[in-house]
Amino acid sequence: MSNIPSEETIQRAAYVTLGCKLNFAETSTLRDQLEAEGIRPISEGEMADVCIVNTCSVTETADQKCRQAINRLHRQHPNAAIIVIGCYAQLKAGEIARMEGVDLVLGMEQKGEVPARIHELLARKAELRPTGAACHESVAVATKDIRTFVPSCSRGDRTRYFLKVQDGCNYYCTYCTIPIARGRSRNGSIASLVAQAEEVARQGGKEIVITGVNIGDFGRTTGETFLQLIQALDRVEGIERYRISSIEPNLLTDEIIEWCAQSRAFMPHFHVPLQSGSDAVLRLMHRHYDTALFRAKVERIREVMPDAFIGVDVIVGTRGETAEYFEEAYQFIDSLDISQLHVFSYSERPGTKALDIPHVVTPQEKHARSQRLIALSERKHSAFCQRFVGTERPVLWEHAREGQPMQGFTDNYVRVELPAGHTALDNTITRITLTDFVR
Ligand code: SF4
């Protein structure tokens, strides 16, 4: 007797993931788990037995993309069970459950149950198939009390992995739905996360991006600290590079910055959300810092890591951002020694406190402000990259197909390219001299 399932009995899953790195990490873990349990991902042209949509709800456009993905999957795989998870599923479970083709909507607290629920659903569908009865009877389960931390680690490519260390947020910024969608701040234990990093090293992974919703808040549920976490991860043999995906400026302590500067594997690379360079707007947003604190953090990074890449998130057109406040914000951002901006346009979200702020920015004005900041970002990024032309830096090379140029990132996050013919460098770190800067 063999336990290997025949081609007939193998079940296949299609995945669609929208949103942030956290969702990608979670889908990747789910895919590995289901594959180990006999449900393999579809190859091109195959029909799926189950479709899993991991959704995002950061803006109204994100919600719309989720609905489009569900409709598309239902058209392409009419007999498949459709399961919807993620932030949009948590916020609008009933609405999604009413969509054609959707069988199951699971909220954040149910994320850990997804594999078991999929097996149940597929078994029920298989039972009904000979009778010809349809099984599109939707169920939505999304409880408000979200406490469980579901560990996740995804393979971005062979060189880079995304390790989720924390989930949820306790901050309640006025424009943000994350605390409603993902629940209160919680985290994995340092021991469990080190074990996951060791597993990445065993699989040959060289770089880990530490992800979470508010990762500086790490340790609420285990009594540990973010600094202790990164110190423990730094000791994992085989992992050559760590990057911190994004950390709130008020939680990025000088101690963390100084420790990263002398660590073995933490790269000179920070991503810090500013959101607005106007103190009045920061207050309206209920952020936990002011522009003076933000400037101090950037300066501290520059003192101890002069070559560090500093990426900064900014939101334009939030309610209350008058033309004067935007101008003030622009001047502040321009004065910072940072490497790149990630510009987001404010989107109204139901249930947020921002809706009580009277001043609304028109879509045209939002667009114009966004364009100005994008141009500023391009200027800053070019200046940052130009600084390193003619210098030598270590690069981790990513997988490239035969005949294709090799690409990789320097320690300080400058994307570099080598002409074709160097595929042997795949997943290795070499020092190279940066010769030219091409936009
Ligand atoms: S810190 Fe603010 S913006 Fe970030 S997830 Fe928490 S509530 Fe949302």
Structure commentary:
Helix 9 (254-261) runs parallel beside helix 11 (291-304). The protein is α/β, with parallel strands linked by helices. Helix 8 links the parallel strand 11 and strand 12. The chain has helices at 21-36, 60-76, 87-91, 93-97, 114-128, 178-182, 190-202, 226-234, 254-261, 279-285, 291-304, 323-334, 363-386, and strands spanning 11-17, 39-41, 50-55, 81-86, 102-106, 139-141, 153-155, 160-164, 166-167, 186-187, 207-211, 241-244, 269-275, 309-316, 340-345, 392-397, 406-410, 415-418, 429-433. The chain has four domains: 11-141, 3-Layer(aba) Sandwich (Rossmann fold); 149-267, Transcription Regulator spoIIAA (2-Layer Sandwich); 271-385, Transcription Regulator spoIIAA (2-Layer Sandwich), CATH 3.30.750; 392-433. It is globular and about 70 Å long. It contains 13 helices and 19 strands. Strands 2-1-3-4-5-6 form a six-stranded parallel beta sheet, with helices on both faces. Iron/sulfur cluster (SF4) binds at residues 169, 171-173, 176, 178-179, 213-214, 248.
